[in-house]
Amino acid sequence: MGKGLLAEIAIKYDLSIQQVELIRKTSRSYVMKIIAHQGCFILKRMQMEELRLQFMVNTEEFLRCRGINIPTVYQTNENKHYVKYKGYFYVLQEWICAGPYPLINLDQVVRLADLLGRMHAISKEFQDSHSQIRMGGAKWEQAYEEALHFLGKWRETNACVEEPWRKAVFAYIDFYMRTGEFVKEQLKEQGRCIAWGEPDIQVVLSHHDFHTQNILLDEAGKIYIIDWEFVRYDLPSRDMNRLLYAMIKKSRVWNHQAFLKVMRAYLKRNILSKREMKLLYLDLAFPHNLCRNLICGKFSRMTVDQINELLQKDKEKTQYMIESYLNQ
């Protein structure tokens, strides 16, 4: 199991490795737990360019030093944050004895909203020489167009398909595409592309994969945020969308009062301007969740009733966001 790699890691980090456990190995992910005389560690393969990796490490270190719990990234004996082996970069991280954050009730969602608001507010102070590598919001319009093109092709391909899960999704596809087109056109009216230097538009460090599997809770009640591979500068809506989606999946119906409580917790930590709120409502109305579930094949593993319930809740959320945008 990667004996050459383990030998390299042992040398670079001065470790006496006793045991290893392969946690995940896919075409995109390679994660290993290492038990050494010095302690327990996680070794991750990072499939990205070196500048992108350095940006990720720098953002983690910045946020960690300001109180956001993120596993420590260890330096090699050459004072580097990663090792290159056979064309891949590897990062050695602190092993966190914790499990996925449970979203059993609204108070737990509110706690995450508070954490997210604090993280975003802190991140506005971050400056890095690699900061222009990932400017997510600057490409919103392009991302919208690509997503709508994907949905259009899916609708065309599945118009006459009888497979139950496909028929269930197909029943909602026109609504989500109409909404997506509306959001795209409204974004153009907001300024064609988001002007990052304007005083009423402030970008934050967006985790961009803020779901419960990447949020850990230990026995002491401490929350850790892991897996920062997709971090970039963006507006808050992308992280908020993942949090709301997790909330929707756990609830029986869309509850706008619960959303308002979550937003109040967030805004206490990170105040948004009127224009930022309009952009947040717009982006929360776009069918990001539908696209992601189709691309990842999640609907095919659900029953028809589960699909109908999820898409109906998401539809009601979308309608609420459009109304909030228009009334802002």
Strand order in space, largest sheet: 1-2-3-5-4
Q: Ends: how far apart?
A: 56 Å
CA-based shape: globular
Order of helices and strands: HEEEHEEEHHHEEEEHHHHH
The total beta strand count reads: 10
What is the average per-residue confidence, as pLDDT, rounded to a whole number? 92
Question: Any idea what the radius of gyration is?
Answer: 21 Å
Task: Bin the helical content.
Answer: 40-55%
The share of residues in extended strands comes to 15-25%
Poorly predicted runs: none
Number of helices: 10
> How would you characterize the largest beta sheet?
5 strands, antiparallel
Structural class: alpha+beta
Report on this structure.
- The chain contains 10 helices and 10 strands.
- It has 328 residues and is an alpha+beta fold.
- The strands form 3 sheets. It has a 5-stranded antiparallel sheet with strand order 1-2-3-5-4, covered by helices on one side.
- A hairpin with a 2-residue loop joins strand 4 (83-85) and strand 5 (88-94).
- The model has no long low-confidence stretch (mean pLDDT 92).
Strand-helix topology:
Elements: H1 3-13, E1 17-25, E2 30-36, E3 39-46, H2 50-65, E4 83-85, E5 88-94, E6 98-100, H3 106-123, H4 140-157, H5 164-189, E7 204-206, E8 215-218, E9 223-225, E10 232-234, H6 237-250, H7 256-269, H8 274-285, H9 288-295, H10 304-327
What is this entry, summarized?
49% of the residues lie in helices and 15% in strands.
Which features would summarize this protein structure in a list?
10 strands, 3-stranded antiparallel beta sheet, 49% helix, 328 residues
